[in-house]
Amino acid sequence: MTYQTDHQEYIPARYPGAATRGRSILYKSVSLMLLSCLALNLHAAFLYRYTNDQGLTVLTQTLPAEYATKGYEIMNEKGRVLRVVAPELTPEQIAERDAALERERLAELEKARQDKIDEELKLQFTHPNDAVRVLNRRIQDFFSLIDVKKGKINNMHIQIKDFQKTAAERQRKGLPITEDSLAKINQLQKEIEHNEMDIIEINKDIDKLLSEFDEKIKRLEIITHKQATDYPEFLKTYQALRQKL
Fold first, then answer.
1. DSSP state of 72
2. What is the pTM of this model?
3. Of 35, 122, 198, 210, which alpha carbon lies 20 to 30 A from 19's?
4. What is the pLDDT of residues 157-187, one digit of tens each?
5. Where are the alpha helices (DSSP H) in the chain?
6. pLDDT band, residue 46 (cuts 50/70/90)
7. Rounded-to-integer distance, Cα 161 and Cα 123, Å
8. How many CB atoms lie within 10 A of CB 205?
9. 223 HSE (CA, 13 A, CB side)
10. In whole angstroms, what is the distance from residue 46 CA to residue 85 CA?
11. 8 A C-beta contact, residue 118 and residue 219
12. CB 139 within 8 A of CB 205
């Protein structure tokens, strides 16, 4: 049996490969030590900064679990902030955030709706005064229709007076009023009421039209950067005509 010395560990020469296995074990041990040191260095390279329950700023290499949801900063060994972790939201904050998102969504929808209206307005009118002229024509059409209705009402009142006059003459002569005369008077009165209701509805339509065009004209002034110079005079004339009706 022979042994190798020369200040090295001696391994029986009769066991082939024993020296190789020894070196492998040594390398593995050294590698594990290096990895452990590297892991420690990496862990030490990151710092956590947070505020504790006493309101004090704390800088540590480990983050306590109870502060993980309260917000903190991750820093490197030079003090540079690498990441900011925001605290978890409370139920009230979540509700407020969701409400803000909903308001933002509705605002976007309203903007899209208004943009569409603006595009349609610009296609219809190149100047606010164009809208004033259209409004004036439509108002005049309504006024003409009211005049027609009022003319019919006046004529029917005249017819009723004629029937009543004829009926009075028959009574003075001792004759009965005919059923036909009474039926015609009742029919005329119903038609008068019907036309009067029509005039009320037409006036409602006029008010609605004025409101719609007032909004359109004012919006056109904004999106075209032009003034509806004819609008004040139109309103003045309209009020005068409305009083006559």
1. E
2. 0.60
3. 35
4. 999 999 999 999 989 988 998 899 899 999 9
5. 18-45, 91-124, 128-172, 179-224, 231-244
6. confident
7. 54
8. 13
9. 20
10. 14
11. yes
12. no
